[in-house]
Automatic annotation (TrEMBL):
<keyword id="KW-0813">Transport</keyword>
<feature type="domain" description="Mechanosensitive ion channel MscS">
    <location>
        <begin position="119"/>
        <end position="185"/>
    </location>
</feature>
<dbReference type="Pfam" id="PF21082">
    <property type="entry name" value="MS_channel_3rd"/>
</dbReference>
<comment type="similarity">
    <text>Belongs to the MscS (TC 1.A.23) family.</text>
</comment>
<keyword id="KW-0407">Ion channel</keyword>
<dbReference type="InterPro" id="IPR006685">
    <property type="entry name" value="MscS_channel_2nd"/>
</dbReference>
<keyword id="KW-0812">Transmembrane</keyword>
<dbReference type="InterPro" id="IPR011066">
    <property type="entry name" value="MscS_channel_C_sf"/>
</dbReference>
<dbReference type="InterPro" id="IPR011014">
    <property type="entry name" value="MscS_channel_TM-2"/>
</dbReference>
<dbReference type="Pfam" id="PF05552">
    <property type="entry name" value="MS_channel_1st_1"/>
</dbReference>
<feature type="transmembrane region" description="Helical">
    <location>
        <begin position="69"/>
        <end position="94"/>
    </location>
</feature>
<keyword id="KW-0997">Cell inner membrane</keyword>
<dbReference type="InterPro" id="IPR049278">
    <property type="entry name" value="MS_channel_C"/>
</dbReference>
<comment type="function">
    <text>Mechanosensitive channel that participates in the regulation of osmotic pressure changes within the cell, opening in response to stretch forces in the membrane lipid bilayer, without the need for other proteins. Contributes to normal resistance to hypoosmotic shock. Forms an ion channel of 1.0 nanosiemens conductance with a slight preference for anions.</text>
</comment>
<dbReference type="GO" id="GO:0008381">
    <property type="term" value="F:mechanosensitive monoatomic ion channel activity"/>
</dbReference>
<keyword id="KW-1133">Transmembrane helix</keyword>
<dbReference type="InterPro" id="IPR023408">
    <property type="entry name" value="MscS_beta-dom_sf"/>
</dbReference>
Length: 300
């Protein structure tokens, strides 16, 4: 339909539209610019959000996120925050009053925050754990008096598997407010042993026997060197401190077997490991008798 035909078919309507447009031309022009600007903000913002989320995803991958749930939650939260900012910006360009909406969102957020105080505390603590990474999945740690293998780092809690095969769930807020000992953090660990020998023992020989017993274990590292020395003169024994180094994964095997081979070597070389003994002297007697503790009984 040509322009002339439209004028002939709808003369009144066309006249009214031309009159309205003439009186509101500036407003129409301004609103048109605002609508186009809002569309541009929405389109550009959409691609910028995708780019920012891609960068965040790469950062999370570099940090080797232990839990995909945490990574997905962080990406989702970033997505919603960024799109909310873009939508508010679009409304602002269109002339829509956004202050009331911001107040409503803030009030709702405050109410939710008060209702979910502990959950938000655990979430913020989870963010700190992810950021500072005091441990990762597979590490053996002690947290809040609980030792175990880290099985998962989740949004609100971590899961530990204890040595006796129990699962312990610790809220993230408890984790960040407690001291954390990470036994798996470093590649090497020192094994601390305390060996007591009789006061009649030759100290130099004892030290050499212990050193020879440990040198046969290939899991014990050459560097740092083994530390062997007299720690204290106890009530019934001279106590040697023995400190070999090994790989972290070999710690308990080295600990148990070192005790076994040290005891075996000391016995083979006639070096006595003393046991509790009480000496009783009776008035009027020229002999003294020793009471030995054996299998829960006292014997003369």
């Amino acid at each position: 339909m040509t322009e002339e035909a439209i004028l002939l078919a709808f003369p009144n309507e066309v006249s009214y539209f031309n009159s309205w447009y003439s009186s509101n031309e500036e407003i129409v022009f301004q609103h048109g610019i605002n609508i186009i600007s809002a569309i541009l903000i929405l389109v550009v913002g959409y691609f910028n959000v995708k780019m920012v989320l891609k960068i965040i995803r790469k950062l999370l991958n570099k940090r080797e996120m232990d839990s995909p749930v945490v990574a997905a939650f962080a990406l989702g939260l970033a997505r919603y925050v960024l799109f909310t900012i873009i939508i508010l910006a679009c409304f602002g360009v269109l002339g829509v009053e956004t202050s009331a909406g911001v107040v409503i969102v803030g009030a709702v957020g405050l109410a939710v925050g008060l209702a979910m105080g502990s959950s938000l505390s655990n979430f913020s603590a989870g963010v700190l754990i992810i950021s500072f990474r005091p441990f990762k999945v597979g590490d053996y740690v002690e947290v809040g008096g609980v030792e175990g293998l880290v099985e998962a780092v989740q949004v609100f809690q971590i899961l530990l598997k204890t040595a006796d095969n129990k699962m312990v769930m610790l809220p993230n807020s408890v984790v960040t407010s407690s001291s954390i000992t990470n036994f798996s953090r470093y590649a090497h660990r020192r094994v601390d042993l305390l060996i007591g020998v009789s006061y009649r023992s030759d100290l130099q020989k004892t030290k050499q026997v212990i050193c020879d017993a440990l040198s046969k274990d290939r899991r014990i590292l050459k560097e740092p060197a083994i530390t062997i020395g007299v720690l204290e003169l106890g009530e019934s024994s001279i106590n040697f401190v023995v400190r070999p180094w090994c790989k972290t994964e070999d710690y308990w095997a080295v600990y148990f077997e070192s005790l076994y081979y040290i005891k075996k070597a000391l016995s083979e070389n006639g070096i006595e490991i003393p046991f509790p003994r009480t000496e009783v002297k009776l008035a009027g007697l020229t002999k003294s008798y020793s009471l030995k503790l054996k299998e829960g009984r006292e014997e003369l």
